[in-house]
């Protein structure tokens, strides 16, 4: 085992605070962030495909100074289904602060179908004579007057109908939020005045947010016996599929070598997130709209005004603010708590 700084950030309190008493009276803490040579995950017997079962590690041992070993149960949960997650991000400069946030729209297969149908209906109602699947919503371009007028489809939505249209899209999420798995994580950081230093800071913030979001969704889904599958928008158009961006693949696969991750995922194998073409699924369009308005809400409040579409219009999301790379606090159920947003 060797120590490494790379580890899954943001752990639920019950994992972070885990300890047990040895027979000698010593309090023992599991080595959550020691890197193990072998990843923690089910082992499939040689020559089988895993359909007949796999060996799942049930506990991990920690040696006490007295020579005894103390067991920590891993409480594995066997997944009985899966939950699909679709993520997108947005950022803004807020004076000396930098804001970055990730939206994650999630649901089981039936819920995903309902969201896709709901969005298709809205698109068909607002732009007639065009198949809703043949065009996609990119909120930034739709709101930008010049971009909208040059777009073959967007130009059919007149300026005064842009926000009502986007609100109708937001309400698709709200109308299906009863069993939703929607999450949002953001960070607001004071940034450095040095441009190069700032680039480094932004990258670190982005990675921390991304990992915190994955951690939360993995913990919640696997606790309920669901295997999470993550689909994120790639930053650039993808040429080869499936394509996984270097830092995400590395940070994710690296995390599987830690006990913290085994506890976080309830012993369930979670596939690494995949990066897909922008707006290649209706739920990515919904994530794009939500991420845009979450960032706009924060920006407008920073400037002392109100957004055209408030976050409650999107229904329930689990909002979290990352206050340090390993600590997230609850930031609201249907809106971002204003006390967490600096003002100009
Ligand atoms: Zn002991």
Structure description:
- The protein is of the alpha/beta class.
- It has one domain.
- Helices cover 33% and strands 22% of the residues.
- It is built from nine helices and 13 strands.
- The strands form four sheets. It has a seven-stranded mixed beta sheet with strand order 11-10-7-8-9-12-13. A two-stranded antiparallel ribbon has the order 1-4. The protein has a two-stranded antiparallel ribbon with strand order 2-3.
- The radius of gyration is 22 Å and the shape is globular.
- The N terminus is likely disordered.
- The structure holds zinc ion (ZN).
- The site of zinc ion has 6 residues, from loops.
Brief write-up:
This protein is α/β, with parallel strands linked by helices and 344 residues long. Helices cover 33% and strands 22% of the residues.
**Mean of residue pLDDT?**
85
The ligands bound in this entry are:
zinc ion
Radius of gyration, rounded? 22 Å
Largest sheet: 7 strands, mixed
Task: State the shape.
Answer: globular
Number of domains: 1
User: Ends: how far apart?
Assistant: 48 Å
Give the SSE map.
Layout: E1 2-3, H1 13-16, E2 20-21, E3 27-28, E4 34-35, E5 59-63, E6 69-73, E7 81-94, E8 97-107, H2 109-126, H3 139-143, H4 145-150, H5 162-175, E9 183-190, H6 195-223, E10 226-233, H7 246-255, H8 259-264, E11 274-276, H9 282-302, E12 318-324, E13 327-332
Parallel strand pairs: 7-10, 9-12, 10-11
Antiparallel strand pairs: 1-4, 2-3, 5-6, 7-8, 8-9, 12-13
The chain binds zinc ion.
Residues 22, 24, 26, 64, 66, 68 line the site of zinc ion.
């Amino acid at each position: 085992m060797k120590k490494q700084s790379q580890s899954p950030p943001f752990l639920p309190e019950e994992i972070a605070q885990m300890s047990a008493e040895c027979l000698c009276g010593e309090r023992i803490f599991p080595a959550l962030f020691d890197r193990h040579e072998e990843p923690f995950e089910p082992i499939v017997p040689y020559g089988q495909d895993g359909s007949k079962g796999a060996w799942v590690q049930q506990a991990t041992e920690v040696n006490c100074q007295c020579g005894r070993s103390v067991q920590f149960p891993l409480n594995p949960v066997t997944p009985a289904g899966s939950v699909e997650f679709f993520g997108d991000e947005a950022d803004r400069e807020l004076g000396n602060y930098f804001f970055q946030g990730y939206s994650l729209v999630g649901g089981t297969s039936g819920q995903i179908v309902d969201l896709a149908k709901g969005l298709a209906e809205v698109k068909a109602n607002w732009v007639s004579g065009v198949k809703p699947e043949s065009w996609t919503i990119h909120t930034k371009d739709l709101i930008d007057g010049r971009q909208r007028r040059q777009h073959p489809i967007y130009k059919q939505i007149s300026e005064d109908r842009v926000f009502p249209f986007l609100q109708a899209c937001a309400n698709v999420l709200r109308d299906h939020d009863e069993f939703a798995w929607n999450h949002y994580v953001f960070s607001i950081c004071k940034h450095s005045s040095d441009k190069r230093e700032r680039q480094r800071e932004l990258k670190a913030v982005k990675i921390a947010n991304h990992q915190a979001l994955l951690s939360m969704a993995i913990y919640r889904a696997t606790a309920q016996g669901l295997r999470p599958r993550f689909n994120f928008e790639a930053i650039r158009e993808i040429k080869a599929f499936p394509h996984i961006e270097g830092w995400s693949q590395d940070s994710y696969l690296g995390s599987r070598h830690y006990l913290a991750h085994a506890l976080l995922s309830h012993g369930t194998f979670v596939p690494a997130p995949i990066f897909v073409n922008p707006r290649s699924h209706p739920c990515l369009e919904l994530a794009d709209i939500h991420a845009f308005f979450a960032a706009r809400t924060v920006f407008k409040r920073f400037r002392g005004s109100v957004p055209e579409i408030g976050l409650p219009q999107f229904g329930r999301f689990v909002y979290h603010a990352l206050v340090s790379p390993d600590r997230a606090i609850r930031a609201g159920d249907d809106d971002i708590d204003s006390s967490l947003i600096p003002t100009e």
